[in-house]
Amino acid sequence: MGTLVLDLKFALRQLRKSPGFTVTAVLMLAFGIGATSSIFSIVNGVLLRPLPFPEPDRLVVLADKLQGFHVNNGNSEVGVTAPDIRAYTRDTHSFESMGGYQFASYELSGTGEPAFLTAARMTAGVFPALRVAPLMGRFFTVQEDEQNQQVVMLSYSAWQERFHGDPHILGTKVLLDRKPYVVIGVMPRNFEFPLQAGQLNRVQLWVPMSFQQDELTRGAASWSYQTVGRLRRGVTAAQAQSDAERVAQDIMRSYPAFMASLRISSSVRPLHEETIEDAKPLVRTLFLAVAVVLLIACANLAGLLLVRAIRRQREMAVRQALGAPASALVRQTLMESLLLSVSGGMLGVVLAGVALQLGKGMLPESLPRIDEIGLNWEVVVFALGLAILTGVLCGLAPAFAALRTNVNETLKEGGRSGSAGGVHARLRSALVVAEIAVALVLLTASGLLLRSFEKMRAVNLGYDPEHVTTASYSLPQKQYSTQAQVDTFDKELLRRMRQIPGAKYAALVSMLPASNHNNNQAFIPEGYVPQGNNLNLATSAVVVGDYFESMGIPLVRGRFFTEADQVTTQLVIIVNRKLADHYWPNQSPIGKRLHIGTQEMQMPWLTVVGEVDDVKLSSPDEETKAQFYFPVTQMEADIGSLASPNDLNGNGGYLVLRSMLPPEHMENALRQTVQSIDPQLPLTEVQTMVQAVSESEAPRRFNTAVITSFAFAAVALAVLGIYSVIAFSVASRVSEMAIRMALGSQRSGIIQLVLISAGKLAAIGCVIGLLGAAGASGLLRSFLFDVSPFDPMVMILAALCVLALALAASALPAMRAAAIDPMKALRSE
Q1: CB-based contact 682:655 (threshold 8 Å)
Q2: Interatomic CA distance for residues 302 and 311, integer angstroms
Q3: pTM summary value
């Protein structure tokens, strides 16, 4: 220990003598380790940490796979139906507890301003499966669920924000959709379920599922629910899968006639896998990108330490001549490296904490468990461990350089500075080439993402988002319990929206583009024979008013809906171009017929009266889907019995207003219009369509911005590396440059000589980097839109950019070399 203390003191003295070197090395490492620690905190919080439930490895999700149905990620999982939840809960034997749940929203009133809160309807088996005890009170029981008891559990945030942490909240009544619910429990501060809700849609209320009869009968074909279960001890997921498959076959045998053609199988997967599935590609890509930045920072540190070791060759030779053992030299060299890396690591932890505080709100909503991302002890241990590893690895090169010092030859040189040997020069050059190569890989990835983002921004959305204001509303069932009351509200709302000063078109709709609230419905085109058991699926929307004019959706042929389209007239429908081209290719769809549901359903035929352009329903880079539209005036004809939960013949929807004024000026006007009809009714998601489209682009924008930031940082570090190598090379070749100039070489020739040396290193790095970029392109494939991962333009531009920056970084050392005074330089020798 005494020797180590002496080594530490000596290392501190040596670093104090070179403050510029010390500060540069520490800051460079702090940036690399800080960035890596920040991303590791995301990786740890989202992917690595177990779910915040007791024995989380026993928690699984159970879902149906519907034959002939495929979602975006290529599988056929569709959730479960209401009858499925009852059957799986009752008839499976592999689970200690199981329950179903569904997202919902409720108007909370009677305490401050009315507001819509995100909620979850859950059967009584969910909380026992999760095994998280309430902070106060109790869970609801099976009897309360089955008897439709109006009880509610609050999240900690809802209890604090809406009820000011009232310690006597249990037993009090709150108004949800203007119905009294008794508060029976409050969950702990960090409890979150379902975990896929996202930060903005965090569930704040839990109420009993209390299935309605309609959900168990007509809703038997609505896979809009999820399940979670806890496996019994000793039961594997495969055994539970077999158990659930048996029940699935029984469920199919009990299907009503209209579902006879449907075929399902079961899927049992760990809850953790289900939670992180969509986040995996993004988080892994971020971690690889930041690892590249750290790698370049480490290469720079190794290069700086190697240069420092070369400059101290005479000192090392004197110490060896005086009897210093090789182990002592290696130990002291490693001590200096560790001091730099640990100091950089500690500063990096501080920078990581600041970055997480400032950047946490910028994370995309697709990331689950965002609240668990933070600077905890695991991140600190990771950062310090990374710093120690970095110090040891980066200190090896100068340590071995010290061992290779030739004592006799070095001491014979007298007072001259040690120069770089061939091995040392090749090692420094190799480090720079590696930096340039990996920086080019990251820069190429950034270029591909930027090009992909621009391609997405140029996509035709199928509608015009400019000058459009939207909002969402939901009518409480107590005050609007009959269809006549709902219709009266909608008609009056539409009439008053049209009277808003500056309003051009107004409409109500059940599903809005960029809202992520769309659902697939099966349908049968007249005369079309489906292939095998595959379903014909399309996304539906119910509209009232001037919806297509409000959204700027072009009419391809036919007509829009009119007030003449009533329940007593011919039942009509409008389809989009993709549906028409697929089912009636090279024909006009006008006059064609289709009906909703499967072949066995006895549903009325609808006549196509219009064809409109395709509309991007979510992000602009998503695949266009088949779509059709109903007029709300004909919904009483039962044409939309399988329509989405937000349809307008129910109790909710979206307001759409196209105005001649700036759309943000219309938001208050919309609120005032709704409150003039129902003063207690709140609006949610009040925004312009431009804002909605921007939010749908947020995940891709985030990916692009972060990767681009890391790419620029990597290139900057690589440029710093080539500058340091060329500058040192010039400094060690002063005599050579002076002799060249004394023998008649022009200063321009000296500059050219230095730039060619730098250009060679950069060119080799670019060639290796382009090969690396081509090899790593597969990792980016899922993030790209309408861009090849081998895009030659991006690769060539990235290589030229790196080459130009490398030459620019070498310009200053080159000009210094050209400014050498040959007489002074030779006299000093």
Answers
A1: no
A2: 14
A3: 0.74
